[in-house]
Amino acid sequence: MPANNAKARKRTAKGKPAGAARPAGSPASGDTRTAQARPGARAAAGNAGAGKAARQIRRTGMSTNLKVTLGVLAVAMAVVVGIVVVNQNSAPTTAAAEALVRPDSHRLSTAADGKTTVVEFLDFECESCLAAYPGVEKLRAEYGDRITYVVRYFPIASHPNAFNAAHAAEAAARQGKFEQMYKKLFDTQNTWGHNQQPQGAVFEGYAQEMGLDMAKFKADVASAEVAARVKADAADGENLGVRGTPTFFINGKQYTDQPTYAGLKAAIDASLAS
Amino acid sequence: MNRLQANSADLAGETGPDADTAEPRVLGERLTGWILVVGGLVGALAAFVLTVEKIALLKNPAYVPSCSINPILSCGSIMSTGQAEVFGFPNPLIGLATFPVVAVTGVAVLARLQLPRWWWLGLQAGALFGVAFVHWLFFQSLYRIGALCPYCMVVWVVMIVLFSYTTLYNLQEGRLPAPRRITGAALRVHSTIPTLWLLTFAALIGVQFWSYWRTLI
User: Fold this and answer.
1) Cα–Cα distances in Å, from B188 out to A1, A27, A58, B76, B145?
2) How far is Cα B161 from Cα B156, in angstroms, rounded to an integer?
3) The complex's ipTM?
4) DSSP class of residue A118?
5) Which end of chain A has a smaller Cβ tally under 10 Å, C or N?
C-alpha cells in the first residue's frame, strides 16, 4: 500500500520530531503491529530501536548498492584504459611504407620515375567510393603513367556484398582483369549494391562478359586464398589508420580532404612538383 | 518479544516467515516513478526520431539519416534491412505506441496513485517482450548486419533499465512470486543489475567491432 506508507511517513515526521524517526518507506502496518503487541513505554523504545536498525540497514543497503555499482563501473573503466594503453604501445607505426603497397597490390598504373604513388583503400559497395570514382578515373586518364595508382581492398562489413565484390575483383585479377572488374563493379554499383541477397551470380555475369575462365573464376571467388588476400589488404589498411572508405594516401601521407577531382589533383600536382 | 525479534530479523534482510510486513522498501515511489517517466520519455523520443527518419528514407531513398556517422555507426544501412520491420511494419512504431504508457505509469506512481496488480503485470509482460526484442535486435545488429544505429542503442539502454526496475519493483511489492531472499539480495544491488547488463552489451560491441575501435585509439 504505497500511498498509505507515504502518508504515515509524513505524519510521523511531523508529529514526533526527535527519536521517533521511522525507517523511510517501512510499511506502517509493521509498526502498528509491534505497538499493538507491546503497549507502553518499553514498546515505544523497542519501536524506536527497530526503526533505528531499519534506518541503518537501509542506509548501508543504499550505499552497498552504490558501492557495488561504482565498483563495477570502476573495474570496467580500468579494463578499457588498460586496453587503450596496451594498444597504444603496440600501435604499429613502423613498416608503414611496406604496408601501404605490397608486392602483390594491384597497380592500375606504374610511374617510371616512381615519384608519386597514390593508394586508394576502397569498398566496391561504398557510396562515397562511387562518388569519388569519376574523379579518380579522370585523374588516371590525365596522369597516366606519370603516377603509380594502387587500389587496395577495404570491404566494410555493413555492406552486404562488399566482400563478395572484393572476392570477384580478386578472382578477376587472377586472370589479369582486375582493372576491368574494378570499373565494372563501380559502373554497376547501383544495380547490385545495398542488396541483402548475395550478388555472386551478378558478378559471375560480369566475369562471363569479360570472357574469363568461369570454372577458375568461380573456384577463385570461393577460395580461402582469395578471401585471405582481401583480408590482408583490409588489415594493412587498419594498421595504417584507415577508418572508412575511400581513403587515399599520396606518397605515404593520408589525404584527409574531400576526395574530389580538384582536391586530389592539387595534392598530386604538389607531389609531382616537389 | 518474539514478535519484535522477528521484525528486526526481517528488517535486517534475514527473511522471516512474515517478511512482507517489515521488509525495508529499497525502491520508493519517487525513484521508481522517475525511472519509468524518464525511461518512457527517452524511449518514446528515440522511437519518434527513428520513425521520422524512416519516413524521410521512404520519401527519398537517397536520404542519409542524421545518425549515419560512419560505416559502423549507421542508421541508414540498418533501417533498410528486413530486421527493421520484423512484424511487417517499422519496429519503432511499437515503441512509439508503448513507451508513452510506461511514462504515464511513472507519472501515476509519482502521483501516488494505486494501480491494480493486473496493470503492473501488464507492464511486466510488456517490458519482458521489449527486452527480449531488444536482445534479438542486438544480435542481428552485431552479428548479421554488422552496424550499429545510435538511436536504436538508446532504446536498448532504456529497455534494459526499464525492464530491470519494473521487475525489481514488482518483486519488491510482492506482485511476482519469488523467494524473498533472492528478491532482497537483488534489491540491495538494484543499480548494479542494469549496469552489468549494459557493460556486457558494451563488451560484446567492443569485441565485435574491435578492428574499427582500434583505429580510433
Assistant:
1) 21, 18, 9, 42, 38
2) 9
3) 0.73
4) E
5) C
Identify the three-state secondary structure at position A208. helix
Over 80: is that where the pLDDT of A149 sits?
Answer: yes
Within 10 angstroms of residue A238's Cβ, the number of other Cβ atoms is 19
Residues of B in contact with A60 (CB under 8 A): none
Helix-strand-coil split of chain A, %, nearest 5: 65, 10, 30
| Facing B11 at nearest CB: one of A29, A50, A76 | A50
Residue B76 has what pLDDT? 74
Q: Tens digit of pLDDT for each residue in B108-134?
A: 999 999 999 999 999 999 999 999 999
Per residue in A194-241, pLDDT (tens digit) is 888 889 999 999 999 999 999 999 999 999 999 999 999 999 988 888
Q: What is the CB neighbour count within 10 angstroms for residue B29?
A: 21
As a whole number of angstroms, the distance between CA B39 and CA B128 comes to 15
Hey, what's the cell of B188?
A: 540491495
Residue that has been written with the C-alpha cell 582481401 in this structure: A230
Measured in whole angstroms, the distance separating CA A257 from the mean position of its chain's CA atoms is 21
Site from B192, B208, B212 to mutate, A interface, most A CB atoms within 10 angstroms: B192
**Residues of chain A found within 8 Å of residue B81, distances taken between Cβ atoms:** 196
Question: What is the grid cell recorded at A236?
Answer: 594493412
Looking at this protein, which amino acid is placed at residue B62? A
Task: Please name the amino acid found at residue A147.
Answer: I
H or E stretch covering B162: helix B150-172
| Contacting residues for A244 by C-beta, under 8 A, at least 6 apart | A126, A128, A156, B70, B71
